[in-house]
Specification:
single chain; about 130 residues; mainly alpha; Aspartate Aminotransferase, domain 1; three-stranded antiparallel sheet; 3 strands; about 10% strand
Length: about 130
């Protein structure tokens, strides 16, 4: 991910508390600019995420909400999202509990679409729970 923000000076302290700890350096900025200048690369990256997402959804044994993004929401009922996130963390897989998402409730986790090996690691871990 690459991004930037313009914020009023009075908001900077709050923004810095909420901002991610990863900063953008000149090398990654140049790489991002180069990637965006190549429409073929962008199209290929989007298609790759779609393909990997489709595989993850198809192979997951839990209900997965339809998604057009680089993440999916998985219903882990009757377990809570917090409990499942904890068990997956114990297996070395980090996901986000969706208990703070009012429209979803406590039984969902958010799973980012990763590299093929990362998705396989997630699927193996969640199927072992």
């Amino acid at each position: 991910r690459v991004g930037y923000a313009f914020v009023p000076e009075w908001l900077v302290p709050a923004y810095m508390r909420a901002a991610t700890p990863f900063t953008l350096n000149s090398v990654s900025a140049s790489a991002a600019i180069g990637a965006l200048r190549d429409p073929g690369h962008v199209k290929e990256a989007v298609q790759r995420v779609k393909r990997l997402r489709d595989i993850l959804v198809r192979e997951c044994r839990y209900p997965v909400m339809p998604s057009g993004a680089n993440f999916v929401m998985v219903d882990v009922s009757p377990m809570t999202g917090r409990e499942m996130a904890g068990r997956l963390a114990d297996a070395g897989v980090l996901v986000r509990s969706c208990e703070s998402f009012p429209s979803l409730g406590e039984h969902y986790i958010r799973v980012s679409i990763g590299e093929e090996w990362e998705n396989t690691q997630f699927l193996n871990a969640i199927h072992a729970v």
